[in-house]
Every structure is written in structure tokens, then in C-alpha cells.
Amino acid sequence: MISINSPVLSKLNNGVESWDSKAVIESIPNEVEILYRWKDGTDTKKRGSLGQYWLFNFGIFLSLKEAIKIYNECAKKVEKWDEYKFPLFASGGGEFFLLECNKNKKEYGMIYYHSIGDVDIDFLNTKYDSLESFIKTIHKCYQEGAYTYSSIDELEFDDKMEYKIAKDLNPKSEYWNLIARAIDE
Length: 185
Fold this sequence. Notes:
By secondary structure, this protein is an alpha+beta fold. It has one domain (7-184): SMI1/KNR4-like (3-Layer(aba) Sandwich). 31% of the residues lie in helices and 19% in strands. The chain has seven helices and nine strands. The strands form three sheets. It has a five-stranded antiparallel β-sheet with strand order 3-4-5-6-7. The longest helix is centred in the last third of the chain and has 13 residues, at 131-143. It is globular and about 40 Å long.
């Protein structure tokens, strides 16, 4: 993102100084603390369009405070969103990217795509195999041109290129298999 001078970098908040896993979910993977110590989400108070806030395809990095607020409002209250799913990213239009924090599940550490409005697929599907594979996917999408910026600094994406990269780097995630037909059309 630095090499392409991504405009979203200037919208990222400084990292959090203190971390209390009890304020989040005690079983949250350690990588999440590292992520939030690096940057504390996107500052969406600065004027702009959704595309100017997206770090990846329909993904705004939530500040820790906003993520905790959304978690408290939605966990166990929204269908298929249990107390072990923590939001890291949001589209700005109702979709969320939730990290599985239940150590007893085989999906522990995977990132789900939760979209009530998506009529083509079930609204909760694993999309990234881990936070690490998510970061590698995003990095490669920028590196290979699947993600670019328009003249007004809005993120644009090549769905087919993103699909190929993401499917390769996230072989355990069901989302990429579910949308394969739509991408091929």
C-alpha cells in the first residue's frame, strides 16, 4: 500500500497503546492485538465516500472502540452472529467481516463474511483462512493490480483477479467456492 501511495493510509488511526482482551473477547487470537497496536482502524469522521475508506473490497477497518460497540450491539442479537464472532471490518452498508474466536471450533481464527442482504449465498461464510492469509490476500491484490484507486481516490477492484488471488491464498474458506460461478460468468 505504501508503494502505490494508497490514500487510505492517511485515514488510518494511530495504534492503540493499551490492550485488554477482557474488553474484547478473551479467546481472541493474538494477531488482533498486533493489528490494533499497529493501527486502530480507519478514521471515518473525515469527509469522504465509502470507496475512500475501503482498505479492501467493501472493507473498512473498524477502530477497536467501534468494533467493541458493534460487537455489543450485534453478538447474540443478529442471526448467525454468536458471542465468539468479533467484527474487524465493515462495508459501510451492513456487511461485516467477523473473526471466529471460539477455540473449540475448527474455524478458530478464520474470518467470516456476514451479509444479511446477499441473496445469492448464505449470509455467513468463511472468507479468509486467517488474519495472516487475509493480510497476504490484500497485499497481493494491491501488488498485482486487483485493487487500484480512481482519480478521486476511491478503491476500485477487479473481481476476477481478486477471486483468483483470494481463492489461492484461502483454500479452506467456503466463500470463494460459492461465488465461483458468478465470477466465471
